[in-house]
Amino acid sequence: AQSVTQLGSHVSVSEGALVLLRCNYSSSVPPYLFWYVQYPNQGLQLLLKYTSAATLVKGINGFEAEFKKSETSFHLTKPSAHMSDAAEYFCAVSGGGGATNKLIFGTGTLLAVQP
Amino acid sequence: DVKVTQSSRYLVKRTGEKVFLECVQDMDHENMFWYRQDPGLGLRLIYFSYDVKMKEKGDIPEGYSVSREKKERFSLILESASTNQTSMYLCASSSLILYEQYFGPGTRLTVT
After folding, report:
1. How many helices (H) and strands (E) does chain B have?
2. Which of A40, A98, B1, B90 shows its CA 20 to 30 Å from the CA of B100?
3. Which residues of B touch A90 (CB under 8 A)?
4. Structural element, H or E, at residue A100
5. How far apart (Å, rounded) are the C-alpha atoms in residues A25 and A91?
6. Tens-digit pLDDT profile for residues A4-54
7. What is the separation of C-alpha A74 from the centre of its chain, rounded to a whole number of angstroms?
8. What is the mean pLDDT of residues A77-95?
9. What residues in A contact B102, CB-CB < 8 Å?
10. For range B1-22, the mean pLDDT
11. Beta-strand (E) ranges in chain A?
């Protein structure tokens, strides 16, 4: 069965600092992995996805994530935080197969950006 | 761009009322999903549908039902609303080929 663990429910960084949000997954099959962002009172927006091509995936808004099979990790990074990055971030895994393409979501990491 | 719309952004209902939440997608996606989101619990799958009139239970189906009469529309029904169903409800859709899901803006439901 697939599962996702996001380490740290709250992360605070200063504007201009590196953003690192951690995600570890468990999957019995080669996984597809996703990062989503949710701004207050909005739905989730896809940031980036890994689908077994390049292990370093670039997404929107300057974010990227690296798939590391040996560490079963898919951490999200951004070199320099902006105030507008303050939001909740969710990691998700798929790969269970079948027609439904269900995703399993982590419990989220709330990112605060301090001026 | 994929667009997923939900019938209401905010809804207030009384205990015992029957509540309908509607979701419409415009990308001809086969799969549609209903989640509820609560602080600290992330997203939990209530029901999903992979075709018209087809549905399967997710992780927390108790107290809910769904209807999918047309491919683009997926409704979530609370037969008799209770206060513990106060939550944010999110609808999503995806194609058979691609795994990523596209989300609507959410409905924040309060049951008093």
Report:
1. 0, 11
2. A40
3. 42-43
4. none
5. 9
6. 999 999 999 999 999 999 999 998 777 899 999 999 888 999 999 998 778
7. 7
8. 94
9. 46
10. 93
11. 3-7, 10-14, 19-26, 32-38, 44-50, 56-58, 64-68, 73-78, 87-94, 104-105, 109-114
**Paired tokens of A59:** 């997404």
In sequence order, the 6+-apart residues with CB closer than 8 A to the CB of B107 are: B6, B7, B8, B9, B10, B11, B21, B88, B89
Residue of chain B whose Cα is closest to the Cα of A39: B105
A51: tokens are: 């689908």
Q: What angle do CA A109, A42, A9 make, to 5 degrees?
A: 10
pLDDT at B63: 96
Q: What is the pLDDT of residues B27-79, one digit of tens each?
A: 999 999 999 999 888 899 999 999 998 999 999 999 999 999 999 999 999 99
> Which of B112, B59, B42 is CA-nearest to residue B84?
B112
Question: CB A103 to CB B99 under 8 A?
Answer: yes
CA–CA distance, B93 with B100 (Å, rounded to integer): 8
pLDDT, position A41: 84
| Size (chain B), residues | 112
Q: Which residue has the tokens 């990491």?
A: A109
- Between CA B48 and CA B37 the distance in angstroms is 15
With residues binned 3-state (H G I as helix, E B as strand, rest as coil), the percentages for chain B, rounded to 5, are: 5, 55, 40
- End-to-end alpha carbon distance in chain B: 37
Rounded to a whole number of angstroms, the distance from the CA of A115 to the nearest CA of chain B is 25
